[in-house]
Amino acid sequence: MDYWNHDPGADAINRVRGAVADVKSVMIENIEKARPHTLPGTEMMIGRPRSLIYRERRVSATTWCLQAALWLSLALEASSAVTAHTLWRIT
């Protein structure tokens, strides 16, 4: 039991966590090495520009409106079909 509790290489999850931590540290080192070589004015590209944020909101709102219109047309179609079926059975 002590072997499994104290050996970090024995557990698969700990091995994966260790590998991810190693990759993460290498990536951070590479980014720090490349950062001084960036051109002036490219700092804006690191974050998301406001125009993309506004565009995402507009697309999201448009998609929501289109989905609402489709659901409304589906509901109206279903209600008209039920009404027509009811009237056809009465006559």
What order do the helices and strands come in, and which of them pair?
Blueprint: H1 2-6, H2 12-34, H3 50-90
Structural account:
This protein folds into 2 domains: 1-47; 48-91. The protein is mostly helical and 91 residues long. The longest helix has 41 residues, at 50-90. The chain contains 3 helices and no strands.
**What's the multimeric state?**
single chain
- Model regions low in confidence, pLDDT < 50 over at least 5 residues: none
Largest sheet: none
Number of strands: 0
Please compute the radius of gyration using only Cα atoms. Answer: 29 Å
Q: Helix tally?
A: 3
Percent of residues in β-strands? under 5%
Helix content bin:
over 70%
- Number of separate structural domains: 2
Q: Specify the structural class.
A: mainly alpha
Q: Give the SSE order as H and E letters.
A: HHH
Distance between the termini: 81 Å
Mean of pLDDT? 79
Overall body shape: elongated
Question: In short, what is this structure?
Answer:
By secondary structure, the protein is mainly α.
Features:
single chain; 91 residues; mainly alpha; 2 domains
